[in-house]
């Protein structure tokens, strides 16, 4: 008897399109700080490679070992972009993408198409440089760009909302409607993780101290003031990721508005009057923690409680001394500028993404300040009743249950319907109680990448750039 494996049916089945697999697309989430990489269909990025640049121009014939030592001194580029940064950025991108392909993903770059998701829109020169590196140096078949604001909403199955992305060098507020970002109504701010690091460093130099634990004699362990040399990017990043939280209390507006106080001093985010208020209202405890530098020096750092609690105020309230509005005011401005028919629809679907959004109480504080801002404006006051976070689980199960109309039914039927409605209400209350304390399905920092993975798996495509058309595509943009 002939085997099934030798039958004509099995041979036709193998030759059908169902068994002809195409190479998976590679998804890269590129920001000035890092590159997240993985394959389409995955539910989280497999690798995250930090990007860095030197302060001087790196020649093309650089030594790999010397280059690696100074890789993470700063982000890939700053805003405004300097011409000297493009040369070093090209070397860094070539180095990092070769490492990603050869040591992380273990695939031939010529076999897989690439999707690049932008959490915040990349600068045109950096975008052109990225495409040139991937097409000419890595020889990828094609590149497609996806907007991060739209992709992050896709993780929640939504096609519209207001997306606030807290990035490394900027924060963008983008309204999305009908699966399209409304770029003409979006706003960007220079407030981001870099500004937060600078502000944290200033506060620790002013209010913190450390003890050198490497000294052999105990009598020499005196308190020393922090210096910029001690407060490296790695130390500040460790504090931001693990030791700070957003205060539930917002500082008084007159202390951060940049106005003159009664004693003639200017009030602002760095003023002494605000520091006094923060110390008096703080609910956080002071903290000591140990830290080891690259030169093996061990120190014990003192982090004041009010700095832990209120260092994030610069993002919410802004920096009046440098004429930088807070993200809350900018979000209010975006909502106010929306068309009348979109104000309520988008303000009730707010999504906060980025690394900073994972800091404890960050999103609750943001929404609290935004609702206060809406309440204080007579035209926007009704929006404060419907404004909410899109990924807040407690909003998913809010339902109204109507009791049956007893006048139109018999007593027995009405009693039976009332019992069913009561049971249904209790069931939904239990469900709400079960999910109200559950976490989000995806991390706020990974939503852009995960949304792109969902989009590619769903056969959502975009304009593909390749070696033949990418120069023509960027010709008009670069000349502008």
TrEMBL record:
Q: Pfam families, per this entry?
A: Actin
Which parts of the sequence are annotated with region: Disordered?
400-443
Protein known as: Actin-related protein 10
- InterPro entries recorded for this chain? Actin (IPR004000), ATPase_NBD (IPR043129)
Entry superkingdom: Eukaryota
Per the UniProt record, the source organism is: Smittium mucronatum
Query: Biased composition, Basic and acidic residues: where in the chain?
Result: 419-433
What is the similarity comment for this entry? Answer: Belongs to the actin family.
| Compositionally skewed regions (Polar residues) per UniProt | 400-409, 434-443
